Amino acid sequence: MKTLSIFLSLVLSFSAYSQIDFTVSGMIFNPGTDSVFISQFFGTHYKDLIGATITKDGNFEIKGSLDNPDYYVLRLKNQHINLIIRDNSAIKIYGDGQNLSSFVNIVNSDESNNMYKYVTQLNDWNAKSDSAMAVIKADPAKSEEINRAMGQEYQKFQGIHKAFIARNPNSPALYAALGSIDLSKDFATYESIVKQLKASFGDSPTIISLDKNYQVLKAQRYANDNLAPGKPAPDFEELRTDGETTMKLSDLRGQIVLLDFWASWCGPCRRENPTVVKLYDKYKDDGFTVMSVSLDKDRAKWLAAIERDKLSWPNHVSDLKGWASAAPKKYGVSGIPFTVLIDRDGKIIATKLRGMELTNELARIFEK
């Protein structure tokens, strides 16, 4: 259990929070041993906590107390199954002792069973990935062919990964998905899962430790993110539509400002404009305005789009340098539409709000 094992190995020594009683029983045919244990796994070794004998027929029952509700493993020699054990858990396990990673049924713990099924699929993906890397290492000439095929396999696994997250809201089973998330690209999903785990299994030492790590990562991201909520929106000065006069973002201090990076040639931007127009008309008398920064190069097309889409607010600016424009560079804009919602003091409320998200946020601000 490659990836999940890495996560479960992070369980550290904690003082007892709330001792729990549990039972794990069932039948494992072809066990290959006469003992089975509830253990913790630390990546390279196990710490056995409670054990029991397996009968000749494969039946077993482990009954006792543990220091905390948490993630544990059922160990059979050098194999294990990941389990979520709570107070009064009465989990039954039926499986093949020769292949616990593929042939197991977990009863009376849907969260453990769902986690097991996901980890099985995760293991399949890891095996394919390792195999592909081995082929490329042996014959670099096959790298393009292998990478193309693995790209398709990766998309399939991403579908499985996203479906697992969607189908297990507020479940401790979501812990298994954390190892498949690239924090540099999808911190929002990681953050969402950590919050769900804290809400659903917050007395688990593993989740307590995870939450502490998350808080550290969140603080680091905030320190490194110039557009983090609560930080001052970077000020800039840009030319208005007449090509002669300028305005600054800070000129709008005292109002709620939607800083909107767009262009006349941007289809998604144009499709979003009716929503922005509607919200401007609804809240402009309450102190809401829009500052539109265009990435156009053609002045005539820019002005025509403003008129055609009825963008009636007065704050339209552009240096007509397209992607080389100064303001988008200052905000790290790599795709449009890109929005920044700014409060009356010039501090960032949120970024990338569109459609219903923008509608809901403005309703929260103006319809308290």
What does this entry look like structurally?
The chain has helices spanning 2-8, 110-138, 143-167, 187-201, 205-224, 267-283, 299-308, 326-330, 355-366; strands at 20-29, 35-41, 46-53, 59-66, 70-76, 79-85, 89-96, 104-107, 237-239, 246-248, 256-262, 288-294, 315-317, 338-342, 348-351. The strands form four sheets. It has a five-stranded mixed sheet with strand order 13-12-11-14-15, covered by helices on one side. A four-stranded mixed sheet has the order 4-1-7-8, covered by helices on one side. Residues 1-16 have low confidence and may be disordered. It contains nine helices and 15 strands. It has 368 residues and is an alpha+beta fold. A hairpin with a 6-residue loop joins β9 and β10. It folds into three domains: 2-110, Sandwich (Immunoglobulin-like); 120-224, no CATH class; 237-366, Glutaredoxin (3-Layer(aba) Sandwich), CATH 3.40.30.10.
